[in-house]
Hints:
Blueprint: H1 2-10, H2 17-40, H3 46-54, H4 73-86, H5 88-106, H6 112-124, E1 128-131, E2 149-150, E3 155-165, E4 172-178, E5 188-194, E6 198-204, E7 216-225, H7 235-276, H8 285-312, H9 316-319, H10 322-350, H11 352-355, H12 364-370, H13 379-385, H14 387-392
Parallel strand pairs: 1-4
Antiparallel strand pairs: 2-3, 3-7, 4-5, 6-7
Helix pairs in contact: 2-3, 2-4, 4-5, 4-7, 5-7, 7-8, 7-10, 7-12, 8-10, 10-12
Amino acid sequence: MNASLSETVSKTVSLHPSTLIARAKACAEVAGQFASSVDSTPRFPSEAFAELKKQNLLGTMIPTELGGDGTSLADVMDICYSLGQACAATAMIYAMHQIKLACIIRHTGGSTAIEAILRRVAAEQLLLASSTTEGNAGGNVRASEAPIETAADHITLQRKATVISYAQYADGIVTTARRSATSEADDQVLLVVLKEDYSLEPLQGWDTLGMRGTRSEGFSLLVKTSPEHVMKQAYSEIHTQTMVPVAHLTWGSVWAGIASAATTKSQNFVRKAARQSGGTLPPGAAHLTQAVSTLRSLRGLLQSALSEYQDILDDPKAISSLNFQTTITLLKVQVSELALSTVLSAMRCCGLTGYRNDSEFSIGRHLRDVLSAPLMINNDRILNGLGTTTLMAPIPKSING
């Protein structure tokens, strides 16, 4: 099974590229039609996910022998980018679902119970939510308070999750937990459960500036299930080898999509203004050049990081190395800041027209959504956590070194 995922992640072209593009485009069109409603209500993007299920894109990364398409990570990133241009909430939910799938696919450990869940995801187009934040740990996903409790024929978990995005609309949840009541907080496992094995009790709501449709509310998660639903490999390894790289690559693709949508609007604004003024560019046109430049840099960072990850995918030692982990962790910081900078440039290009909510060139929703990027696992937390690492890292002595 690990070999299948290695092939899936490392491929640069999907098995059915033209078909996949058409399927993704259909979903993006539906997502775009309802994006304003999803944001203003706010509500779960149900229409977009009905189309994603119709197009069989929820299980597309699952290997073909388990019923999926075996779609590459590169193509999943493109889907995230396309959806991000249409509806940021839809794109982020899709990305989070695919992150969990990537972790499960790569680290099944030959478990028939886990493989059965993957078959169901592919066949029934189930949506999986993620629960990695908890109680006082906040954004520290490498520490869990709630332990797995083992009984004679089942296990239980009671977890106060400060955030479980789209939990009430998901068909299953993938959650971290302390291995046992006597384990340390960082001795974690990954637990995969479907709806029949858990219940949710609301703890807090979700009234935010942007990304409103993700419905990232807090819940008390109560699980009773088979021990076979605990993944065998330690979460510390899953986190390093798959969770972090795939998260930062797919999140980054979503943010790049938002930035692309804002840049496209500013480009259209400049074109229209120039036509109406006999070819004279509007005062903010220079900001379009800046937006195009930062968007290009953003996409280049994602492409470079994906290529590096693909090259070392089958080498756990290389993935765990200080150099790669620093690179992939900083990717989140760099891409999120560049995406925000791009959208701000696009708004400055459009001026008051971009600032208005009732304008065809409004950048407001894009700006509110992309503001979440530096705050979702706060960039300051990441940079502070890498403080010692950067002190130890050698400074390159040449461009190619």
